[in-house]
Please model this.
Amino acid sequence: MNSSILSVGAYVPPQIMTNQELPASLDTSDEWIRTRTGIEQRHVAGPEETTASVSIKASERALKAMALDPRELDWIMLCTDTPEMWSPATACFVQDALGAQYASAIDLTGGCAGFLQTLQIADKMAQAGETVLVIGTEVLTKSLDWTDRSTAVLFGDGSGAVVVGPSNEGIRIVHAKSQSDGSQADILGKPYGGTRNPITPELVADGHLHTIHMEGQKVFKRAVQDMGSMALQVMQDAQINAQDIDWVIPHQANQRIIDAVAHHAGIVKERVFSHVAKYANTGSASIVIALADMIRNGLVKPGQNLLTVAFGSGFSWGSQLWKVNQVPPAIFE
Ligand SMILES: CC(C)(COP(=O)(O)OP(=O)(O)OC[C@H]1O[C@@H](n2cnc3c(N)ncnc32)[C@H](O)[C@@H]1OP(=O)(O)O)[C@@H](O)C(=O)NCCC(=O)NCCS
Model:
């Protein structure tokens, strides 16, 4: 049995922060950010919003879109680098709120490629007959160092969820591939607060060490190289030419990376979806939010071939070829 994406839900917090509204502590400018990244604004979680609360909103939309009874879910797999808390899994809060009483709930962490990695696992489970809610969520703005201008300007908050099940109706996952290189773990991540660098009074007093750390230029280089190569590999494995790809849905990291990956993979710019200007980099949520936005705008049509590709901390990266048999219902208001 094939597996397909049967419905899509996405949620971004209503509060928008434009480049001009970024804190003065960043000593940046709208012009610098637009030129280097294409980002114009980001959605930012309010004080009362958390990873679980935004995930619940996206999940409710995915279930509502296809009128699925939550008790039919076998699994809830939530991918995030910014969990509700260390333990238990954020997915358990979602399971409870949805009333998915027969589901097993678990979190996975894969950086910005995490949603594709999680979907790759869910695809196999759906092929075996299970119905899986796959969620990609980040509340990154609560994990940023707001004095680090090279990192803080890049990210935004949001959540996306898809229901994946054993079916040919929807977006069929034709081919999926992903890979990791843990030797690059120090380049991008949130290294403090775990067992290697436990929370201490000094750590808390510093006020910066619990936040995301990134060496931007190194990330840029590998992101372009690895996403481009992986996209080419997936097309080759699936025996499909770049001309037959209707849309590339790249991880919305920044416009310069998106353009360079498309060039590397031989795909013309007009077929590469980007809304990074409006949402910035929402990490694990970015590909689902992009898919929901595309469906909302009527860009996804039956018969299309969609190529999706992502890269993030780890490093981990992945790409998938999707075939649109039917456009899945989607809610993204
Ligand atoms: C972060 C990134 C935009 C920085 O752009 P860059 O062209 O590499 O810039 P550099 O890091 O070389 O910095 C150049 C200068 O701009 C400055 N700068 C960095 N961020 C700035 C900002 N937001 N505003 C103004 N100046 C900034 C630097 O301090 C540096 O100044 P200096 O020359 O006086 O030291 C770029 O490296 C990038 O996009 N990397 C990938 C990041 C990413 O997408 N990560 C997530 C992947 S999942």
Q: What stands out?
A: The chain has one domain: 1-333. The pocket of coenzyme A is lined by residues 28, 32-33, 36-37, 112, 149-150, 153-154, 214, 216-217, 219-220, 223, 253-254, 257, 281, 311-312 (CB under 6 Å). The CA atoms of residues 189 and 212 lie 5 Å apart.
